[in-house]
Every structure is written in structure tokens, then in C-alpha cells.
Amino acid sequence: QEEQEEEPITRVSVVEALVILAGQMNRNGYSIRRMDSPNVNVGIGIFPAIAMVNHSCDPNCAVITHENGTLMVTTIKPVKRYQELTVSYTDLLLPREQRHELTLHRNFICHCLRCTLPNAYPNERALSLPLCNFCGTLPRVVHFADGGLRTSSTKDANSDEGDAWVCWTEDGGCGRQLDKESYKEFDATLNSIVVSLQEVVRSSMQLLLPGKDGDADDDEVEQQEEAKCKRIEVIEEGDNEDSKTAPKQGEQEGKNESISDQRVQILTKATKLHEELKGLVNKAYSPNHYKVITALTLLHALYKRGGDLHAAVNVLAEAVLAMETYLPKNWPELCEWYIRLCESHNSCVEGGAKSVSSDIASRKKLHKMRSRAIESSTQICGKEHPLTLRCQAVEIA
Question: Structure pTM?
């Protein structure tokens, strides 16, 4: 038998190898998340089997991180026989246009029902559309065709050319077509608020924790900040020792005063931006608008760092109630938001501040959220999973 010729080895440069790897990560990479905090990414990896699962903006499965970086695809809703299993490659809180842009980076266009028939998902419109400035009703997206107007269809669902916002009478609206130009100022203001909040969050983290990465987990940041505030120099008794330690004591007091001043500055900026946001919500935008939700979560971090726990709980409650509108019932990230709200409420009560306002999230609502989180995490993650154990460990104060 003739010896088979060995295939030639293709050699590539380091740069070429990195480009190939980056492309594979972009198209087939999956985030590895903290097991007890699925909203926190700790790494990324390529998982060939899971990469075979297609995307949907209304998925019936979720990807759960288990021990040693193992990922598992778990159903989150009833699935019929022969029905395709789907997961989400994007953030489900993003509006259709942003989700579309992200899927294009993976070289495909999403044709799920949520993208092709957005008007069939009434809450979908609140993610990106403003409110009618005449009657306050949420409009519908329609497209010009054949000299008239028609609602979005599969053919042009991902195109914004020639579209219009119409206040639909069937939705209780006034029937007017909204003037997009009149909303540019509102949109610029909302964008400015979100950008300003992001800048304050980054700067406040650098002030409180010099050298700490701005993407650190918020809970970890708070623990380190509190440890820093509570750290005291041990002063021994005796006249000589007092004289030696006096400079250190004065230095520590100066640090505490500095941190206190920083908290005041953070609260001042957060309060100002929050007031600007209130001027837009329910006037120009729904509380369920994705930029409003983003702003509320940023405000939560700032109020928490500034020491106003009551305000921190209230804005987080508003954000979580809006998230419920879009995220699947058994979504792991939603479970964590429920628990974060319950934990923030407990910190607020333990800190001596007022409890959560009853019109936002009463104790009864918090108990329901905790029960949902425990039930969902147990179902999709398992009884011994760290997320489930975290949910079970929280008791409403």
C-alpha cells in the first residue's frame, strides 16, 4: 500500500490567529456568568453543542452557568413535540432595532414573531416609541405602501424607511400621526440623562475605589466601600502612643470626611438627573421605555453609593416592574433582579430608613417576587444551584 501523503499544515501569524479567534467568539461565543448573579459576566467561551441552538427574541430556553464553567440549555416554558428549541443571543430588554443590529454582527437577521410582527406584542412598542403628545397613548409603527399606510409586516419589519408613528384609535388614541421632529428634543434629553448617569457611575466608582475596574459587580463594590469606611486605626493607651498615633487618626478622619463629601456629591448629581428623568416619564415616554429602565438601574447604583437606600429601593422597584413586562417568567436574570430588590429592601429597613413605598413595591409584592424567584430558579437551575440558594436565603424584613 502506498503511504498516504500528509496534508500540509497551514501556518498563520499570531495576528491572523487572534482575528480568527475573535470572529469565532463573536459568532459562536457564549457568556459565562456568575452562578449566583446571572447578570454578571465573568468570561466567554465557545461551546459547539450550544452554538447549534438558534436565536429567538422570544426564546423557550435559557443558557444556565453551572460549576466549572459548564453551560446547560434549559427550557423555560412548555415546548411542544418537534418544536424548535431557541435561546436569545441578545439582551431581551433592547428594542427591535438594537436587537437587529446585534444579530447582524453574527451575520443573520432575526425573523422571530417578536421581530416580524411587533404590533402583535403590545409591550414591544413601549421599548422604543414615545407617547402621543396630544393624548398620551402609545402609537403604532406603520409603513407607507401603495399610497397609504399599513401596519408592519414580515417584509419590512426590520426596515425603518418610510415608517410613521400613528396614534391608533383602537388603542384608545386620538388617530393623529405623530411628528417625529417634535420628539428630537425629548430624545436628546433622555440620551443626555443616560450618558450623564453612566459618567457619574464610572467617576463615583473611581472616587470610592481608586484603581477598581468600572465593570465590577455592584454588591462587591459596596462591600469594599463599607469596609473602607469602617476601617479604623488601633490607638493604644498612653501619652507617648497617643502622640505617635495622632497623625494617623487625623489622617483617617480626613479620609472619612472625604468619603462623606463624595457621597453628598453623588447624591446631588443623582437627584438632579432623577428629576430630569421624572419630567419625561409619562409625558414623552412610557416607564417601560428601555432607556428609562437603563436610567433607573443606574440611579439605583448611585443612590446606593450615596447612602440614600430608600431612593435606591424605589428606583430599582420601578425598573424591575418594567422588566417584568418583557422578560420571560422563568428568566434567570429576572430572578436575580427580584432578589436584588428584596436585598435592597432589607438593607433599607435594617439601615433605619423608610421601607419601600406601597405604591411601588409593597412587602406583599416583594414576597410574591421572592416566591417567583425561588420557584423559577429551582425549576431552571436546580435545588442546589447557587442562584436558588441565594433566593432561598433572602427573608423579607
Answer: 0.80
